[in-house]
Design brief:
The structure is a single chain. By secondary structure, this protein is mainly alpha-helical. 76% of the residues lie in helices and 0% in strands. The protein has 17 helices and no strands. α2 packs antiparallel against α4.
């Protein structure tokens, strides 16, 4: 009993120090405390099973810190280590789903490696069925958005549309309005890539109305909607390329000054750049990440 108390005390010690190091911005030190914490659990399997959610959360912390440091191969190697626990602790299946899949797919999108997400899509859908009704709705919304985005980056637009439609078909609520608003922008971009230009023109009005109603229409979103409408009108015309290049420059300049959620959740500038340079979004993002422009991983996703 005394030994168990001692182990718990050491666990608390490393949790507090990991949090403190993270708050200071010393992520290497935070990783050190997380790794020591994980080692403590591995040395005490009974306690590990009792506190498996905490173990999963600490694995997720290490992955996130590595991504924020730009240590991308190390982060994905740690995620592969995390994945081995998928069926080891059946009582923690919901916890695994919540902590692993969103993190993996977000990291794959963030680093320009959507193929990593799509490779596990079938597995994830099976797990999703098993935990349906047990995970927060906001979590499901974010997961659908990320899957739509991963397919969009991979030029698999019909599948991207299927995922974004699942999100847009949810009953209207005030839950994660930022995701709902950006899903409408993503929907327009997908339709544009599918050549559905009349749909884009008509749906711009609906998207604008939604954003106005829920206070999501900042200057960046206003210009993004104007951009999408202008692209749809110019499509197949002689000025299509110049219109795209012009809007790319305009939104690029606006993005540097904006605090809009759209600049963090939806990279319209990258999409336009891809069309101008005739390169895929995944290639552009991978190049930017390798050069350190996207080394910082986003804040916790849900």
């Amino acid at each position: 009993i005394a030994e168990a108390h001692s182990v718990r005390a050491r666990i608390e010690f490393h949790i507090l120090n990991r949090k403190f190091s993270s708050l200071k911005g010393n992520l290497e030190e935070a990783i050190l405390h997380s790794e020591r914490l994980l080692a403590l659990f591995d040395e005490n399997p009974v306690l590990k099973e009792e506190l498996i959610r905490l173990y999963f959360a600490e694995l997720a912390n290490v992955c996130t810190y590595l991504l924020r440091l730009g240590r991308i191969p190390d982060a994905f190697a740690k995620m592969d280590e995390f994945r081995q626990f998928r069926l080891t602790y059946p009582k923690a299946r919901v916890d695994f789903f919540q902590l692993y899949y969103v993190m993996l797919i977000a990291a794959a999108v963030h680093t320009g490696q959507p193929e990593r997400a799509l490779a596990l899509e079938m597995e994830m859908e099976e797990e999703w069925t098993a935990v349906e009704g047990k995970i927060p709705k906001a979590h499901e919304m974010w997961l659908r958005y990320l899957l739509a985005y991963a397919h969009f980056m991979s030029d698999k637009h019909k599948t991207a549309l299927r995922w974004v439609n699942k999100l847009l078909a949810e009953p209207r609520s005030d839950l994660r309005i930022d995701i709902q608003a950006n899903a409408r922008l993503l929907n327009l971009m997908i339709h544009y890539n599918l050549g559905n230009y009349t749909v884009v023109e008509s749906e711009v009005v609906s998207a604008k109305r939604f954003m106005e109603k829920y206070d999501q229409l900042q200057e960046y979103e206003k210009q993004a909607l104007r951009c999408l409408k202008a692209l749809a009108i110019a499509a197949n015309g002689p000025n299509a390329k110049s219109v795209t290049a012009s809007w790319h420059a305009k939104l690029f300049n606006l993005e540097t000054q904006s605090t809009s959620p759209a600049t963090r959740m939806l990279d319209i500038v990258e999409w336009l750049h891809g069309m101008v340079a005739q390169r895929s979004m995944a290639d552009l993002r991978k190049a930017n990440t390798s050069q350190g422009y996207r080394a910082a991983f986003p804040e916790p996703l849900v």
